[in-house]
Amino acid sequence: MIAGESIMSKDKRSVQHIKTLSGLLDQRRSRTSSGALLEMSMLEMEKQRLVLEVQRAERRAGEIRARLLEINTKSLRLQKFVEKVSAPPSLSPTTLVPGTPLTVHTMPANKMKSRQLTY
Amino acid sequence: MNQAEELTVLTLEKKPDFVETPYIHGITGKALDYIRAGYPVHFSGPAGTGKTALAMHVAAQLGRQVILIHGDDEFGSSDLIGGQTGYRSTKVIDNYIHSVLKQEESVSKQWVDNRLTTACKYGFTLIYDEFTRSRPEANNVLLSILEERLLELPDVRLGDGYLQVHPEFSAIFTSNPEEYAGVHKTQDALMDRMITVKLGHHDFETEVAITQAKSGLDWKQAKAIVDIVREFRALGVNNARPTIRACIMLGRIVAGRGGIVSAIDPAFRELCHDVLNADCVKVTHEGQALGLERLDEIMMRCCPPQSPPVRVVSTTDGPASPALQRVK
After folding, report:
1. Secondary structure of B266-286 in the HEC alphabet?
2. Which chain A residue lies closest to B58 (C-alpha atoms)?
3. CA dihedral (B151, B152, B158, B160) positive or negative
4. Closest chain A residue to B150 measured between Cα atoms?
5. Three-class DSSP category at B229
């Protein structure tokens, strides 16, 4: 650590920062055919790993989208339930009870704005 | 959910220059009889026949507050009865015991009544102007209102879902003929529920009285203008234009600039050419439009040069027309 440098200013360390022997490469190996073949093999393995990773991510994204749809459907159902919770319990279709007449409303005089229009 | 307080109702008041001739009295009395018997009235006729003014006049006679709606192609049922325009959210946080936190949150949709619902609920008079400019399916909701006196509201609305129409509710409709641009056909079921009063152009004395009252010209000048317009209107096959609006335009402009109503006055001739829009009368001879020539002839007949040109004095307390005198 350089003197005076804060610890907090350092980059976050992660697995990628751990140095192992596999990271020590001979920069001259691709100059030989055997070295090139070795490097090709390594690249192919890395490519396979990355392709698998992409497939996993796509599968996960599909799962998330399906779950979001489920959440929306359930929200709508719950919404309807909340709105109807104050409704009276339903009777069987054969039950015929005398109904009360529908309400005739009276104008709330203090809440209505009235404007004059001349014609 | 009642949001009626956000709506504005109208109280109608007639202007001092509103003209009531026997013709207007006759139609108004007829319409009031129909409405008091419980039937909606529909004024139908070409532009410039005074449908909207008559509807307002009839509504004013009923003595109830008025809700005014203008038909529009973009209208849907929710524009008439109301709809969900937002959400109401309530949240209760109970932390009475410090170690226990209880939260309850509920969200419900917010219903807002629109003008038709308000009119039905509180018994206002509805004027649905140019209702055929709305698509027929938007007006379907009127069918049960006019017949069963019941307004059916969507399930999502809190409450009964049915609204009993107030006994004092009445409706007045106006419309143009179907051949007009932007006018839809109306379902027979709706037309069957209302009494349609066909309106044509006003009679002569009413047109003179209106022109006189709106412009401030004296009766003789107003009569000359109406003579020109009526004779020009009778030409050709389309007898809908020019309307009373052209009479009022001519009268107001002449009065405003202190001009004279005379065929020898170039300014008046030019004004007539502009306002009466000679193209609206398809009179042709060997492919040549004769509208302007015929208009000049009419002007020479209705206000001939031998009569001394009268300098117009704009006044509202001039001699009243015979029609007005009769009403008074």
Report:
1. HHHHHHHHHHHCHHHCCCEEC
2. A119
3. positive
4. A102
5. helix
Question: Which residues in B have their CB inside 8 Å of a CB on A?
Answer: 4-5, 7-15, 18, 52-53, 56-57, 60, 65-66, 68, 106-109, 121-123, 150, 156, 158, 160, 162-164, 166-167
**pLDDT score recorded for residue B224:** 94
The string of pLDDT tens digits covering residues B87-120 is: 778 888 888 888 888 888 888 777 788 899 999 9
Q: What is the mean pLDDT of residues A62-69?
A: 95
Q: Do A104 and B9 touch (CB under 8 A)?
A: no
Q: What's the CA gap between B5 and B299, in Å, rounded?
A: 55
* Whether complex ipTM tops 0.90: no
Residue located via tokens 């001092």: B16
pLDDT over 70 (residue B308) = no
Q: Looking at residue B277, what is its pLDDT?
A: 72
Distance CA(A53)–CA(B100), nearest Å, equals: 43
CA-wise closest residue to B321 among B225, B254, B229, B222: B222
The whole-number average pLDDT for the span B236-264 is: 87
Residue B7 one-letter amino acid: L
Each domain of chain A, given as residue ranges in start order, spans 54-84
Structural domains of chain B, with CATH: 4-82+113-198 (3.40.50.300), 204-327 (no CATH)
Spacing of C-alpha B21 from chain mean position? 19
User: Could you give the percent of chain B with pLDDT greater than 70?
Assistant: 85
CB contact under 8 A, A108 and B4: yes
Could A116 and B13 be called an inter-chain contact, meaning their C-beta atoms sit closer than 8 Å? yes
Chain A residues within 8 A of B14 when measuring between CB atoms = 118-119
Over residues B131-146, the mean pLDDT reads 94
Kindly provide the residue ranges of all beta strands, DSSP E only, lying in chain B, ordered along the sequence: 8-13, 41-44, 66-70, 82-94, 102-113, 125-129, 150-152, 162-164, 170-175, 195-198, 284-285, 288-289
Q: Do A104 and B18 lie within an 8 Å CB cutoff?
A: no
Q: What is the mean pLDDT of residues A64-76?
A: 93
Residue contact B13–A103, C-beta within 8 A: no
Residue A18: per-residue pLDDT: 75
pTM: 0.67
pLDDT of residue B321: 46
Instruction: Count CB-CB contacts under 10 A for residue B201.
Output: 20
Q: Do A118 and B122 touch (CB under 8 A)?
A: no
Residues B303 and B261: beta-carbon distance below 8 Å: yes
